[in-house]
Specification:
- Helices cover 62% and strands 10% of the residues.
- By secondary structure, the protein is an alpha/beta fold.
- The strands form three sheets. The protein has a six-stranded mixed beta sheet with strand order 6-9-10-3-11-12. Strands 2-1-4-5 form a four-stranded antiparallel beta sheet, with no helix packed on it. It has a two-stranded antiparallel sheet with strand order 7-8.
- The two termini are 65 Å apart.
């Protein structure tokens, strides 16, 4: 884990080295000042030497200024190193997430990834700064102060040693008790973020069903779990302060009492006693600093494990050693394909799929919910890998292609359409970042999107809100289709992507496909027979298997499932605008 995290310090190594060096300089100056103070009392005040007082006072001012400057510079470089480390961690995690296959993404919840990129990285940032500053300053100050105390008076210094051992043991016990709570609290954060995300994404449904009270209770439950975990952890940590206070005052009383007796017996000077009391505070404050460091490290350890889970996650779909860089055509072959989302589960989602599609062919795919229609097309662009058999595009196994090359030739309009915040043109250029405005307009005309875009005041410069919340479902689908067309793909997959448009518009889109991109292989997943009945062939899926394949007329004669669906959809007189679609 440390190795995985340490390599992300790159670019901030100098800052990470300078921070502890300045901390050590600050400690050195702080250790010298009590000796100068003792000299002022013993050799200046008691000896009546005003010149010595002035000289040592000047040196104390210089030491204090150096200590202050070292502390400021240590803080500056420490902040730069820790924030840079956090930036590198976020970037590395985000970059790695971009390489994940769908199977990798399925392992992490969206809320969990957000927590890792925000809360967990912030914890690591704070912990790293404490490690650079406090973990250098506190032990150095503790060791130096202890050494100086023994140098001044070994007998009284033993009081410090006993206090350090006792207090250190108590702090270790407290930290060990709080560790388990801090490890659990971040899983509660995932639940809290999930509740917030789900509520905000579905706020229209929440309001439509007047479920605000239910959502508030769910949020309060998740928030309450975080609260209770922190209360338990912080409740144990509150013992730190009283333990520290008891130890500090006990040491001061013992040293003052014994030191006074030694001064009376002339075995110790007043200045030495003052120095010992100063070192007492340094030692005990160093222990307090270390306790804070242990708290932060305890919290950040759980965060570090969660971050490393993302950093070390390897995509199970990678480029071959010598990838194919050209897709010849849009032909697709499924060669006795079996597929399971969990490879070791034995539960097949697709079973013995043997299908051969010619380049430029239009294939309709229908089937009930859960018949694995989307799973079938996801294998074409290698969003998942097959369990058994092979999928070939352009005559070659998809696993032999460069991933970017393959996916650039396969345009997918997914079942759940996604638009990003930005203008309509910016969203369209996801299909082709170099597309001209004229090309974007042409693609929108093919997708029947231009007609509603022209009604917007800003037309193609209209700003799309996050998630496309300011356009309707049908408008969103048409924009996504236009975006896919801009890729000029060899294969176009429409995964139930016209379900929110009327039949007339659906027919116009299909006709535009046939006329404008005849050489592109088109796979159309749909629930409506009218969306696929003009396809070259129609595939009927049932329980992850091919139940039938043929033209509309052939399936009406030979396939019971297709015939039942057709009759159920046309029994009531067909779609309300079916006549418009035939025009």
């Amino acid at each position: 884990m440390i190795k995985s995290l340490a390599k992300h310090i790159n670019g901030f190594k100098v800052d990470s080295i300078l921070t502890p060096l300045f901390m050590l300089l600050e400690v050195a100056m702080e250790m010298i000042i009590p000796l100068m103070m003792a000299s002022i009392i013993d050799d200046g005040v008691e000896a009546g030497s005003i010149r010595h007082i002035y000289m040592m006072g000047l040196w104390m001012v210089i030491a204090a200024c150096v200590s202050l400057a070292a502390g400021v510079l240590g803080g500056k470089f420490g902040a730069k190193a820790s924030t840079g480390f956090a930036r590198n961690l976020r970037k590395a995690m985000y970059d790695n997430i971009q390489t994940f296959s769908f199977a990798n993404i399925d392992k992490f919840s969206t809320a969990g990834l957000v927590t890792r990129l925000t809360t967990d990285v912030t914890n690591m940032q704070n912990a790293y700064q404490m490690i650079l500053r406090m973990c250098t300053r506190a032990p150095a100050s503790l060791i130096c102060a202890m050494a100086m105390s023994f140098f001044i008076n070994a007998r009284l210094a033993c009081i410090y040693l006993a206090a350090v051992i006792l207090l250190g043991g108590c702090l270790f016990f407290i930290m060990s008790r709080t560790t388990k709570y801090f490890q659990q609290v971040f899983h509660r954060y995932d639940d809290l973020n999930a509740s917030i995300q789900e509520n905000i994404n579905g706020i229209r449904v929440v309001k439509a069903y007047v479920r605000e009270d239910y959502e508030n209770k769910k949020f309060m439950k998740a928030s309450g779990n975080v609260y209770r975990m922190f209360v338990k952890a912080e409740g144990i940590l509150t013992f730190n302060a009283p333990l520290m206070q008891i130890t500090v005052y006990s040491c001061i009383l013992l040293i003052s009492w014994l030191g006074t007796k030694m001064i009376v017996g002339t075995s110790m000077t007043t200045g030495e006693l003052m120095s010992l009391l100063t070192y007492c505070m340094n030692i005990l404050m160093s222990l307090m600093m270390l306790s804070f460091v242990f708290v932060m490290i305890t919290m950040s350890y759980a965060s570090a494990e969660r971050i490393c889970e993302v950093l070390n996650e390897q995509s199970d779909i990678v480029n071959p050693k010598a990838p194919e860089m050209t897709v010849k055509d849009g032909s697709i072959d499924f060669d006795h394909v079996d597929f399971s989302y969990k490879k070791d589960s034995g539960e097949l989602v697709l079973s013995d799929i043997d299908l051969h599609i010619r380049s430029g062919e239009t294939i309709g795919i229908i089937g009930g919910t859960g018949s694995s229609k989307s799973s079938l097309v996801n294998l074409i662009s290698r969003l998942y890998d097959v369990t058994n058999g092979a999928v070939r595009v352009g005559g070659k196994d998809v696993r032999s292609y460069d991933l970017n090359t393959l996916r650039n030739e396969v345009a997918v309009v997914l079942q759940k359409n996604v638009l990003f915040s930005g203008t309509i043109l910016e969203n369209l250029r996801w299909g082709d970042k170099n597309a001209t405005e004229e090309e974007c307009i042409r693609a929108c005309r093919l997708a029947c999107a231009d007609e509603f875009i022209q009604n917007f005041p800003d037309k193609y410069e209209t700003y799309i809100e996050q998630g496309g919340t300011n356009v309707s479902g049908g408008q969103k689908q048409r924009l996504c289709i236009a975006r896919a067309l801009l890729k000029k793909p060899k294969i176009l997959i429409l995964d139930d992507s016209t379900s929110a448009v009327d039949t007339a518009t659906d027919a116009k889109i299909r006709r535009a496909f046939a006329e404008e991109i005849p050489g592109t292989t088109k796979l159309i997943i749909a629930q409506r027979i009218s969306s696929v009945q003009h396809a070259d062939r129609i595939l009927v899926m049932e329980d992850g298997r091919i139940n039938g394949i043929g033209t509309h007329e052939e399936l009406l004669k030979n396939n019971a499932i297709y015939r039942d669906v057709y009759e159920s959809q046309t029994g009531g007189g067909g779609d309300f605008d079916e006549d418009g679609g035939a025009a």
